[in-house]
Amino acid sequence: MMNTSSHLKAQASCPLVEHFLRRKLSKENFDRFIPNRSAMDFDFANYALTQGRKRNVDEVTSASRKAYMTQLAEAMNQNRTRILAFRNKPKALLSSNHSDPPHQQPISVKPRRYIPQNSERVLDAPGIADDFYLNLLDWGSSNVLAIALGDTVYLWDASSGSTYKLVTIDEEEGPVTSINWTQDGLDLAIGLDNSEVQLWDCVSNRQVRTLRGGHESRVGSLAWNNHILTTGGMDGKIVNNDVRIRSSIVETYLGHTEEVCGLKWSESGKKLASGGNDNVVHIWDHRSVASSNPTRQWLHRFEEHTAAVRALAWCPFQASLLATGGGVGDGKIKFWNTHTGACLNSVETGSQVCSLLWSKSERELLSSHGFTQNQLTLWKYPSMVKMAELNGHTSRVLFMAQSPDGCTVASAAGDETLRLWNVFGEPPKTTKKAASKKYTDPFAHVNHIR
Amino acid sequence: MMEQEIWVRVTRAAAKRKASTAMGIDEDRLNKKRVFLGELLNVSNVNLLSNLN
Fold it and tell me: Would the pLDDT of A81 be above 90?
């Protein structure tokens, strides 16, 4: 005690010591009407008197920036309006200095869309095949959903909710192994177990053609590209059929050594993506000029998946971007630049990826999965953050199809149910106008040159 | 050819068929009970039922 006081006396000229001495004196002579200099923040006072007005003139452009500025001001204790202080508040100062900034979330510019967690409709799908390599569900642009249940193809009109049977295939030819609508939504291709493909006019409900000779085993994948119908078979072959020509086979793509289970044309119709049971994805180039060589080499070959690739989806807002999903032994979603052949990203999902769909209005990707959760997962692209997980199916969700307006997704699983999910939300008005205009087009039944 | 994506799972139809043989119920009558693409209603979906488009 004596040493401390003598030490303080010895350094009386030190400003810090003077500060303490003055503070002690001020405590003894406390007055409500005289400002307490030791309690005042002179730096803040100087700032408030000189630059404070300047800040008021500034206009904050966006809500998120305003929220950020508010949070920053609170963290730096700049929200005070008073300059003079009449009492020394050491506890308040200490707590203010050491307290954590508030954890409130900044105001988001875009409110998150509500995604219903339950399917809005459940339809019975008795006899649907629980086969990973088939493609038994498709939603046409005329708002008719086609589904193959065993030997029979059913059409469900989404506008009216009515169901009707299109065709029951003979036992020797069936069962149905794939279906795919033409771009105008008026004709349906039906792939069969006996390697044939039937073409049906769904306006008059009659068969117009049978394609033969392209494959030696069942046709599990189909993809239309205007008047070209591409078929993928259990024999690993991919055949381009021009349905206007009597001898329809115009091209054969050889590259897969096992069953072709995924087949998708890009929106421009210039590139074809194929996935197979050999764990390989091929990108093929479609040239309109017929060449002398009917067999063509692939553009790219992706071998990074470690299981069968059935899920393929071309990105609608970024040309040349392809999303692929691997089966049980892989469980990954990969993104490819099909111009350069580079793998841009790979995301582990934790289970078999059966199907993939891009949103038409937002940068989102929907995936359907198998064992153990049998869920649909909605991802935000490109961060690949999970936005929603949709449960309800009790078996692997093999098939997904998107409505023409882009809002609703139909999913079918081995639990023999067809579920409709309002997962992508309401479309923008412009998109809706464009969509409705497409259907009312008087020449919709005529093939357009694109 | 290896079927690497095969999962053997008993569907409801298979389970019913198995049950019908045990109980001696006629399979034709059993099949008629299910409506193709018929609406399956449950409690959680009734409130959310809405028209498409």
Answer: no
